[in-house]
Amino acid sequence: MKLKLFVTTIAVACVAMSQAAADKVIGYFPYWSQYSQFYPKDIRYNTVTHIHYSSLLPAEDGSLAFPDENDAPNYDSLANMCAANNVKLVVSVGGVEAEGALKAIAGSDEALSTFVGNLKTWVGEHKANGVELDWQNITADDAADYAKMMNALVDAFSGVIVASTMYPLAAMEPYTAEVMNKLSYINVFIPDQMSEESSTLVPNQGGKIIAETLEKAADAGIQKSLLVPVVYFYGKSFLGATGFGSSHQGTGSGNEGYLPYKELMSKFDTPDYKVSFDSDSQSEIAVSKEEAIVFMGIPSVKAVAVNVKNNGYAGVAVYDVSQDHHEPIVSVLVTIGLELRPGVNYKAAKK
Questions:
Q1: What confidence tier does 350 reach under pLDDT thresholds 50, 70, 90?
Q2: For 77, phi and psi rounded to 5 degrees?
């Protein structure tokens, strides 16, 4: 084979492999979805490849429990519906305020062995396809403990998914390439950039900061084909704000200033809000006489999906599936799917 043809063939193959890697669409299903009347039957399973149930709670002795025992029947329904729809079900372990228990488990060989054994039993008995470790508020001091726990999970589980969350903007030190590259994939979270304490309005999330965070992880030696950015399906409102860079008077409409994406679409049906896409941050903003809302909409999420596809990342995750709009034409999950899984039929079923 001539050298020029050989090089061209390799280049084409590399591009094909890069694009093929971006095949995951992961939806988080938090246990509290039941309180907003969203159940496993309401998930549009054709829009996702994986569902992450969030989250099992660990105790310091290595035991595990549902955060709310009333959600156990919902989990069983979720497991059955995932299996029926050929969607992988991964159980997330940890979450908010669980870092103390995880640190205690990792610091004890006996507790870690119990934890891993309990998790293997739980996965086997509850029809899960894998596990995800969600160690939040992690610091450089936790690096050794995190590595110890992840290595124990990888060594113990065979033939199932072993994933982890990652918070690179909080700390990079715990996430060494040696450990992370052993995993099935990694869900990369970017913390909210906008809060009531912020003096001026900035995007809460956007395609630009997501791209920069993914590059930071890749520059640390973590394989791009394992990295999955997490997109938030909610907006945040602030009274008196008139645009990016303006001041505000605290949180606006919604539950403590939070608005699910599906509710935003109803708000924007009226002429009260002017909605625009900010190309610099690759995020959306909606401004009315009373407030401004910062959120990720179809243009910004499409930008994330295109970046993932073009740069060989693993896919896109969303937090969470209950907050998407049910109409395909304004669904953010469908927007992701059209980029990463264009062969799927996303049309609404006829009634």
A1: low
A2: -65, -40
Q: Which CATH architecture has domain 29-233+299-340?
A: Alpha-Beta Barrel (3.20)
Question: Per-residue pLDDT averaged across 335-346, rounded?
Answer: 96
Beta bridge partners of 90: 52, 130
Gap between the Cα atoms of 93 and 334, Å rounded: 28
d(Cα 82, Cα 139) in Å, to the nearest integer? 34
84 residue type, one letter: A
Peptide bond into 55 cis (omega under 30): yes
Residues 340, 315 contacting (CB under 8 angstroms): yes
Question: Residues for the chain: how many in total?
Answer: 351
In this prediction the pTM is 0.92
Q: How far is CA 72 from CA 5, 79, 171, 219, in A?
A: 58, 11, 34, 41
Using CA atoms, how far apart are residues 214 and 23, in angstroms rounded to an integer?
17
Report the C-alpha gap between 262 and 253 in whole angstroms: 14
Phi, then psi, of 217 in degrees rounded to 5: -65, -45
